[in-house]
Every structure is written in C-alpha cells, then in structure tokens.
Amino acid sequence: xxxxxxxxxxxxxxxxxxxxxxxxxxxxxxxxxxxxxxxxxxxxxxxxxxxxxxxxxxxxxxxxxxxxxxxxxxxxxxxxxxxxxxxxxxxxxxxxxxxxxxxxxxxxxxxxxxxxxxxxxxxxxxxxxxxxxxxxxxxx
Length: 140
What we know:
Elements: H1 2-10, H2 17-28, H3 35-42, H4 51-63, E1 68-70, E2 78-80, E3 87-91, E4 97-100, E5 111-112, E6 115-116, E7 123-126, H5 129-139
Parallel strand pairs: 3-7
Antiparallel strand pairs: 1-2, 3-4, 5-6
Helix pairs in contact: 3-4
C-alpha cells in the first residue's frame, strides 16, 4: 500500500484509504471492471464505501492519467490500469474482455502516414480460447 500511496501523491491525489483500495484492486485485477464491479468487490471489506466514492475515484484517476476508460462493444464504461499499447478482445459467448499484447512498432515515433497519433484503440470480437476449448470438449 505504501507504493500506491506514493503513486497517488505523485499524481497530486490525496491517498485516502478508499482510493488506495480502489487502485490496489485495479492493479491486481486486470478484468476491465466497471465501477459497479469494483464496488461489489470492495464493499464487504470496506462497509463505508459508497458507489459515489468509487465513481469519483475512477474519474479522478482517469483525469490524472492513471487509468484508461474503455467503452468496448458496450455502452458501459470499464477501467484498466494497463496503459501499455495492446488490443482488446471480447468474447461474444462468455463476455470476458482480454488484453492481447502485440507489437506496435508502427507507433514508435507517434506518426503514421504523416498523422500524429495521440491515442489508439484496437478492439476485436470473437470466441475466446476457453469457450472454444469448452465447445471441443462438449462435442467430443
């Protein structure tokens, strides 16, 4: 928690217990959670935690560049701590959202065909490995 406290302070954020626990959850649960999912995961540990606190913390973390807000194939906003370039893959069967690591060498200098890239988002939709394996096992 000391590292999280320091990180929040470096971004000009007062490190309340609730904020540190929300950031800790995001750092250790790369499941692209919604605010509701974060609230559900933490409210038993922190009975005084409110949904408003979760939403406000996520907004603040996003504004300070600590998180990425995602709207991938759905109207709800999800959050992730991973800011490294990657692709998002959503399974159309189970609904899980995966990070797929790829080489983005074309973005090294931040320019593509004369265009300066400030952000990039690549989203794929299909059937995940787990669902395909389950389908094979069910058909065997």
